[in-house]
Amino acid sequence: MKEYLEGQVENMTHDGRGVVKEDRFPIFIPGALPGERILYQVTKKGKKFASGDLVEILQASPQRQEAKDPTLMPIMPLQILNAQGQKAFKENVVKQALERIAGQRNIKIKPLKTMDHPWFYRNKMTLAVKDIQGRLEFGIFGRKSHDFIPVDQTYLAEKPLEESIFKARDILRKHKIQAYDPLSKQGNLHHIILKRGHYSGETMILFVCKNETPLGDQALYQDLKAQIPQLVSIAQNKQEKDHQEILGRKTKILWGDKYLKDQLLGLSFYQSPQAFYQVNTPQTEVLYQLALDYAQLQGTERVLDAYCGLGTISLHLAKKARQVHAMEILEEAIQTAEENKKINQITNAHFQAGKAEKILPQWQKQGLEFDLALVDPPRKGLDPSFIQSLGQLAPGKIIYISCNPATLARDCKEFVDLGYQIQEVQPVDLFPQTPHVECIALIQRVKG
């Protein structure tokens, strides 16, 4: 039997685990908060750190609050930390990244923009699916494991979406839909994704399956339509690889429309099944308004938008700029962006599918120059060759939207080396109850 150890929690890791040190050796404990005295067990020891389990809280932090649902700790580990504590934690994550990685100690970091109602905010939920004792369950996986945890609530999905999720589960049970079992190779469904337009209420269901055999039949689709308000689309994605990214490349519509439709800052947007769309609509509007305020467009500028997705920010920029050139790796997203351009009657936005680091040098060879560049990359940040190409084009201003402070800081260091200065960074809380934080950075050219 492993021994229980007593320790003081000194701080938290960037992913929300408490840090206890034993002879200066760090042990990471999920569920422990800074300032707490705890009993813990070491479960795994590596060369640089160890992992452990929380056994008992001997002295609780004044910022600790009761968890809404302890079983949901893998997807919202900060649910035990009050609003003041979450704000301080996220501001510190951003500050530490910029100081340690970018080497920037004098950057203006503004206070985190928080939500008034930080529960039930997501317009999209992705859940794993598994048969347990012959009963279909929706659930999540344990932290860094494949341990399936059934759930009956999420506290994160918008309330109408939350209701639709579990209505869908009950209907799938009724129609005897079988989850894919990687051991027996039986069944087909392994994830389900539901999306809902925050303003429109339109809902889309995406089944993620092992193969292309259509899941269910028209009776199932009609049952879903009858019981899920404003259901407009049912689609199926094929992902045949185990333990890879959730979505595969091929998606087909089983029933209904190709898109759901919603609004952002007064413009209308179609969402296709696979394309990226920010999951917190109210806070996305805060984020995008900040981008427009930073841009200060006068109507004469040529703007670059890299990693443009469905064109959500591109089209807002196009309303105020002379011309916008935007790129996105996913062909489906670019097709949808073109549709979004049409429905908003915008003619001065150009979209192209492909990798940003390949398209930008092509545009450079064509003689395109940009007054402003907006980048919104995935968590891995910008490709080094893209940064170099952008540095050669030398736009006067760069607006960097990031969901990962570490890669934001890394890339900011590169821009500083290319003659730019980070004017300010504004964190925005798009993901309450989780350790994730979105940032928008204003980067200005100062030499060259």
UniProtKB/TrEMBL annotation:
The active site is at C403. Residues 1-56 form the TRAM domain. Keywords: Coiled coil, Methyltransferase, S-adenosyl-L-methionine, Transferase. GO terms for biological process: rRNA base methylation. The keyword Methyltransferase applies. It is an enzyme of class 2 (transferase). S-adenosyl-L-methionine binds at Q278, Y307, E328, D376. GO terms for molecular function: rRNA (uridine-C5-)-methyltransferase activity. It comes from the Bacteria. Its EC number is 2.1.1.189. Residues 320-347 form a coiled coil. Belongs to the class I-like SAM-binding methyltransferase superfamily. RNA M5U methyltransferase family. NCBIfam families: rumA. This is 23S rRNA (Uracil-C(5))-methyltransferase RlmCD.
